[in-house]
Amino acid sequence: MGLNKNVVEKIRKVVPYVPGEQPQNTVIKLNTNENPYPPAPGVQKALREFEAHRLKLYPDPSASLLRDSLAEYYKVGPEQVFVGVGSDDVLSLCFLTFFNSEKPVLFPDITYSFYKVWAQLYRIPYECPMLDDNFCIRREDYYKENGGIIFPNPNAPTAVYEDLDFVEDILRHNQDVVVIVDEAYIDFAGRSAVELLDRYPNLLVVQTFSKARSMAGMRIGYAIGSPELIQYLNDVKYSFNSYTMNLPSIVCGVEAVKDKAYFEDTVRTIIETREWAKIELKRLGFSFPDAQANFIFAAHPQYEGKALFEALKQEQIYVRHWDGRRIGQYLRITVGTREEMKELFGTLKRYMHK
Ligand SMILES: *Cc1c(COP(=O)(O)O)cnc(C)c1O
User: Fold this and answer.
1) What is the pLDDT of residue 20?
2) What is the predicted pLDDT for the residue at 16?
3) Virtual CA dihedral for 281, 188, 180, 117, nearest 10 degrees?
4) What is the three-state SS of 125-143?
């Protein structure tokens, strides 16, 4: 027997976020912006040496070891850092905590599609100003009254990075709301908005270990902001679940932060591969906004995005494609290793008979 309609009527209904496919045995996976390189060697060592008896106790609810190492890394106070289970967890809590107004929250029409899902889940009104024809955010769209602002920088899936003057301009025009900059890809781009924190107590910067730090499977994200904002975030978190981050994640996260040289090295390698991949894509006739992340959002004038996506998938190469008027022609291609990218280009060339 099914639920009767009176029961169904009382249930919260949502349209969930659809993550990219996670095939567990693909040849080449360039569809969810993971890092092709392993985490820092210290992470492997910490996992190998982790003693299971430590799991019998609850973990530290504030993940203070990891919080403090991030504070030191970014030269801010520990009371300015909040650690969560992936930045999706952090961002979701941010929506719940900071976007509590009748006025609409603003984020771009083409952006991380989870924002819309959280807004709907928490019943937050929102508006989505259109990116311009070059897929850039139009700053004037964010000068109007609103209930808060969030955008990724670089933006996803476009990979377009806006410099700090742009971010500061948005902040200057929005001192009465919380402005969240989702910097999931900042390490592949340029200067972080962390530099602006001293002047804008309403700014929150969110980052993750999933992309540049090669730890998507560990689930670590964090927010950096004024002690006041972080306090509000903690109040909501502790009204929800105190022990969100497990002990192995805390231990491994600290190890990853320690190894700055390894981190910078892998990021540099990915940037080099990206710059080479841009040249190859242009040679094949693709066009794309200048990519400053670990992915490229590219379209071909002669081939449908969907057709290319399917053709690559046939060959066990996964990239990301969305339907939609403005983006249906595009593929979002994660920058993998040089070998993986060579396979991709080889397959594209065969498909296009080039
Ligand atoms: C990948 C991504 C995230 C989420 O990353 P987590 O794995 O949850 O830390 C958040 N924002 C954007 C824009 C992303 O691309």
Assistant:
1) 78
2) 87
3) 50
4) CEECCCCCCCCCCCHHHHC
Q: What count of Cα atoms within 13 Å lies in the side-chain half-sphere of residue 178?
A: 23
**Residue 33 C-alpha to ligand 1 middle, in angstroms?**
9
Nearest protein Cα to ligand 1, atom 14: 184
Q: What is the pLDDT of residue 274?
A: 98
Report the distance separating Cα 197 and Cα 212, nearest Å: 22
Q: Is 183 in the pocket of ligand 1 (CB under 6 A)?
A: no
CA angle 233, 239, 245 (to 5 degrees): 70
**Given ligand 1 and candidates 70, 205, 211, which is best to mutate, with the most ligand atoms within 8 Å of its CB?**
211
CA 152 to centroid of chain Cα atoms: 7
State whether the beta carbon of 182 lies less than 6 angstroms from ligand 1: yes
Q: Can you tell me which residue has the tokens 């808060």?
A: 148
Tokens of 162: 């806006």
221 in ligand 1 pocket by Cβ < 6 Å? yes
Please tell me if the CB atom of residue 331 comes closer than 6 angstroms to any atom of ligand 1.
no
- Spans in the chain with pLDDT lower than 70: 25-26
